[in-house]
Structures
1.
Amino acid sequence: MHYLSTRGGDDKLSFEEVSERFEYTEQPFTLPCQAILQGLAPNGGLYIPSEIPQLPANWETEWANLPFEELAYNLTSLFVPESSIPADDLKELIKNSYSTFRHAERTPITQVGSNRYILELFHGPTFAFKDVALQFLGNLFEYFLKRRNAGKKAGEARHKLTIVGATSGDTGSAAIYGVRGKEDISIFILHPKGRVSPIQEAQMTTVLDSNVHNCAVKGTFDDCQDIVKSLFSDKEFNDKHKLGAVNSINWARILSQITYYFYSYLQAKKQTPSDSQIQFVVPTGNFGDILAGFYAKKLGLPSQPMVIATNANDILTRFWKSGVYEKYDSNQHVQPVDAAVQVSEGASDGKQALAVVGGVKATLSPAMDILVSSNFERLLWYIVLESMVDGNQVAASAQVNEWMNELKSNGRFSVPEAALNVFRRDFKAARVSDEETTQTIKQYFSEPEKGFGSYTVDPHTAVGLKAAGVNAPDSNTYQICLATAHAAKFSEAVEHALKDQSQFNFEKDVLPKEFHGLMDKQRRVIDIDGIAPELTKEVIESKASKEAAEGNVGV
Ligand SMILES: *Cc1c(COP(=O)(O)O)cnc(C)c1O
């Protein structure tokens, strides 16, 4: 088992190498931007496993009652040879990664309708599904660094990693919690000062570990992203500080997410008739989460076509309908040029118009606000492999490469019918508006299906639940809808949706006890007084030399 690029070339990477490819693409980056950034495959592609491993023949019975961690080990070890990480070390690493989860089952399912389950992925430290991957990734980085630094004497140069990222609020904390307190790793997360929701700001800035640096930049989220891009493209700075990003293109993140598809499938099968069918419904942004589901299916997990649920940023739903992968919707009259800021006010139908920034629409489900879905390139490769090139990997990469170049130069490409048919065989897709999102939050709270309790969902989860309803299958099929965040994390959208429900009480119904007192906890933030990248570089330099002075010398 090795890893190869979706765009071809000769490099064959090991699991360790591929885990440390730090393509920086936090949304809403577009593909052309990635190429200048460190760590991408030399040809701009993404890494995929050279083969799909085989499950043991009787996995469904043998794995039916395994705890989450053991299932995770069984699946992860299929892709991570012992020469990369010995079995006992990998087991330990996985055990540690999920010991931070509050729920004994880690990712439990809850039935919310006669044919519908919610897969709760928000029991990790920051109440969002990204914890599943980032708790694992943080430990993986620590493990590899420890191994490389083993036997180093005091004062000797050490291997180090400096993670830098920008956040609009929702993903920064999962990254911070993934690496807090870890030796030889420091993390700098930039957020726009005063423009992050109070809960999310508190979640990030109350982490006081000395390797965690929250930077409040006087500017917008886009400014923060520009600063990060600029840091990554400064080769000298990058080489010196070994910059890394922890975005959703990272292979190890995808890998760790495969587990909960199997886990929830096995749980649901125990609660449904023996001939029941399972269908997954996944709220989707960068196509990382659902790509893990695709790999689960490729490994042999039985599943009806999975539902891609998008918000108004619907490139995937448009592609599903037309076979055209197009950055901007050519049927819409608003076609902003890149980086332009346009806010359309009062659309003609009287509904509230969405703010459009650089072509990305600002919705109630911000973690899914993207122009293009970076991980979709990986799926495309498999589609091409099956439908167009008779299983020839080199030819598949050449085709993907061609399309990605087209996307870069023309903002679009289209695929032949055979390819589209394969895509439609494995996936369905639906676009959900903000209005429908709000209605769905309301519906699950105040009008649950007869016999089921009231459930408060976050706006991302609501997008999935709405899409599930649109694609409701026959009575023998049970849907598993992925809940990607806890409702408390997106309190504004939830409170807005439920403001007229007299029986709704945010503190009582939604706020977890871990959030009590959060706003009053001690915080540590570095103010960055402008958007010139030099200002952020100075902060990183000064923290690095402080650490060096304390005897922790980086190489
Ligand atoms: C990141 C995120 C998503 C989208 O996940 P992708 O892997 O990018 O598709 C959905 N919901 C929440 C809450 C997220 O944080």
2.
Amino acid sequence: MSIKENLLHIKHSLPAHVTLVAVSKTKPNEMLMEAYDAGQRDFGENYVQELVDKHEQLPKDINWHFIGHLQSNKVKYIAPFVHLIHGVDSVKLLEEINKQAQKNKRVINCLLQIYIAQEETKFGFSFEECEHFLYSEIYSQLKHINIIGFMAMASNTDDKQQIKKEFHSLNEFLKKHSAKNNKLTTLSIGMSSDYKIAVEEGSTMVRIGSTIFGERIYTS
Ligand SMILES: *Cc1c(COP(=O)(O)O)cnc(C)c1O
């Protein structure tokens, strides 16, 4: 199937309120343009340099999502144009995003990455840390960031019930806090392998790569 057919197939299966972020990391510009020509405008990248290059080379009406692990010293390269930063996993990083957003006279939308998986290796805030931060004095002083919700990755497992349980707990967390903070509207959960479960559990944004563009081949 072509990229266009893959996109249409996925779009068809998503409710209207769910945004599809096409994860194009490692893929060449020609493939992104195929998706663009089929109407796709939201693209997700994991590597800063690759994102900067693609932003320079591709149409200016693309919404660029940064979905990888962001290092503080690289925020400055994407701050002028990034649409949404998904994986914000520390207060230090938020402070740097705020600083760079201010320099660019922008307010940058961010999602806090929450740790829901069983694995030890995933980045992110725990529910408790996140809760603590959202009502902190520090947060109230960061005027150039806008936290619009949460992002997470489920455990890397075939156990669908486990994945469902993890997404469900995050959705409950969002509902609890969006009642007090109406900016919290976005739940970025769901990748190629688990987006259908994520949508059932309240996803408003899915990040899909290989199902659109094919498997990634990494070369070093
Ligand atoms: C690569 C990646 C995706 C997309 O993964 P697929 O399995 O190819 O759909 C989604 N989210 C994050 C954070 C990623 O790094």
3.
Amino acid sequence: MQNELTPERLSKLEVNERPSQAAGLRAVKVSLQHVEEYSALGDSMKALLKMNQKGGFDCPGCAWPDPDGRRSAIGEYCENGAKAIAEEATNRRVGPEWFARHSVAAMGEMTDFELGKSGRITHPMYLAPDATHYAPVSWEEAFRLIAEQLRTLDPDEAIFYTSGRASNEAAFLYQLFVRQYGTNNLPDCSNMCHESTGHALAEVLGLGKGTVTLEDVHDAELLIVVGQNPGTNHPRMLSALKECKDRGGRMISINPLPETGLMGFIDPQSPLSILKRGTDLSDLFLQVRINEDISLVRAICKLLWMEEQAAPGTVFDEEFIEAHTSGFGEWTAMLDATDFDECVAASGVPAPKIREAVDMIARSKKIVLSYAMGLTQHENSVDVIKEMVNLLLCMGAMGKPGAGICPTRGHSNVQGDRTVGVWEKLTPELRKSLQNYFNFKPPEHDGFDVVNSLKAMHEGKAKFFMGLGGNIISAVPDTVYAAKGLRQCEMTVHVSTKPNRSHVVHGKKALILPCLGRTEKDVRASGPQFVSCENSMGVVQSSQGVLEPRGPELRSEVAILCGLAAATLRGNTTVDWEEMAGNYDRIRDAIAACIPGFERYNEKVREPGGFYLPNGPRNRRFATSDGKAQFSVTDRSHHALGRDEFLMMTVRSHDQYNTTIYGMNDRYRGIHGERRVVMMSEEDMARAGFEPGASVDLSSEYDGEVRTARLFQVVPYPIPPGNVATYFPEANVLVPITRTTRGSNTPISKSVRVRVQRHKAME
Ligand SMILES: Nc1nc2c(c(=O)[nH]1)N[C@H]1C(S)=C(S)[C@@H](COP(=O)(O)OP(=O)(O)OC[C@H]3O[C@@H](n4cnc5c(=O)[nH]c(N)nc54)[C@H](O)[C@@H]3O)O[C@H]1N2
Ligand SMILES: Nc1nc2c(c(=O)[nH]1)N[C@H]1C(S)=C(S)[C@@H](COP(=O)(O)OP(=O)(O)OC[C@H]3O[C@@H](n4cnc5c(=O)[nH]c(N)nc54)[C@H](O)[C@@H]3O)O[C@H]1N2
Ligand SMILES: [Mo]
């Protein structure tokens, strides 16, 4: 994808001391630098003032909720939210002249950072077969080209991907178009993200979403934050953690890395917080080995169960267990059979620390457990999440104030996209509603998720790929394998805001359709429009851009999809696409009729703060087979590592939004100037004979097939021996397509077996 890297390109690595606290004035300063550097300061400030405010737009950064009814002066301010806006509101433009100057080959030479920094795409662009450059096309011509292609295919040969930034309105129309066209091939970024959550929680709680509200987080006596780096990825969550601590709550964090944002926080909006030099967040840090969370929680539960047996009724919530759960007997039988020492040894956490955790948990009635990608991207992730639920269930910490499970979502509307029907599986309920409301027969069989889409393209079974946002080639596992599939496609189409690697790794024909961003005004036939999004806690809110569009040719995602649907389906549709595109209230009417919980959508979404979707588990109603929350008997992880192998996780740096690279620094980890690094314990470095900064190659071997990522630099880091960490997407080439989470088919981005060897130049 990029030419072979040479050591000279890696000369800028600097490793500094890690800060002990997140946010604070430095964060404000850093984000203002981003704003100044990359966008019109005036515009970005205007945007910042409106972010997450009533009447403003939903921050495109993450899915963390805003406080109900309470807003601080500049909204819920956040460094990485500011970067996301600066990225979108940039003054730089990528117009037809830019594409004329940069051939696709030249684009391929640019790093992800350089590509993204080029600016906002202003015109629809077409890459004809064998052409060297993208050239401008009219919207109508673009739609005609795509429609023509789609009509030559069996609908199941086409793939329609969604990234989680698409609004409810766009996402609903997209799945409607795709299903009227005739396929359920609707993979989304969720497949690589919280799919394991959906599976696990649907099975054991009857709803594949979190159960808590923001107030529950504030109100908890004990917060357990597992496999998540909120200081970087959900900075506004730090305010909630601090609020909880201010009210007397305590916090345990479970992570292979001592992430700065988990340790301490200075609230940039509170002069008192700045004066007091911040709040210590974690009361207890359990440095678990990668993917040994089951071992750790099993050990904890074993001790809790022993205490409960010694003094019945003092630890577990017997009433809750009796009335609302099933499987308790099997679960405790398994605990009886569990070898505590074995679990402790596997977890990597010293037994005294585990006992400390047990003391804290046993004394708490109100417990919230939050987690993110550290739990969802392993082969046994569905089990890992069920194990977390076991812990909450025995304590009765479910469906009452201050308690529950909080899978922290990534993209700002990834949860909403799924709620309104973007899924490769079409539920019988939605099939029926679509059929009734729109009077057509949606396809019945499941479509391809992300991994199966990659396989289908690779095997030539799928020939068309469209991405509603996102950057498929950089986001998916097994980059080389995936690229071959994309390149074989007859056509690839991307609805994008900025150039990215997926425009470079293209099909025989390729189109880029530039769209408005969240921050921009969207005026349609009936006047200014707003869209809506669902946050991590099931609150649906409106989002309306405030900035002038970054170019006159840009269209909203809704308008693009309606244009495309009308061109493709022509007479063969029961939907008035033009009416939908002209007035988004009509889309919301349809959603209200088809999706449970959206009754009176148009009215409720206009209320300040939006509305909550129904959530059974929040009220102890569990839509499982027997109406009860389920205890699960799970298996601990088994990684058969060779003597020279490590378990590698791929994580985000502080300067990126998934595949969009904002900068080269990972400030909270003290790593500057370089992203091709591998974090390794000093013990392992000594054993392997690596000095700090040593150039190495990484390889992973599965079923005899070796994948290689060349030229990384070793950074000594406080990570458990046997574990290493690299950045996503640089290390995605090593993630094998052949290994995914059992049940959810999620790539195993957090537990890849790798070897680390001294760098050898290419022959
Ligand atoms: N600024 C910014 N914000 C973002 C994003 C971004 O890229 N940039 N991405 C968005 C998206 S789509 C998502 S999904 C979220 C991601 O949010 P996170 O899940 O916080 O993101 P990761 O960097 O993948 O971090 C995973 C964390 O899990 C830990 N971890 C890894 N393996 C294990 C394990 O086996 N056990 C435990 N206990 N911990 C483990 C890692 O050390 C790391 O702290 O953030 C969203 N918000
Ligand atoms: N190794 C490894 N791989 C991973 C992960 C990991 O932790 N490790 N994490 C996984 C996770 S959690 C996720 S969610 C996926 C993310 O996968 P994706 O969602 O596919 O990737 P993003 O980088 O978020 O997408 C960025 C692109 O979206 C476009 N974009 C930005 N804003 C808009 C907009 O408003 N509208 C439209 N139409 N386009 C827009 C821009 O062109 C930008 O280039 O990656 C997954 N891949
Ligand atoms: Mo994600």
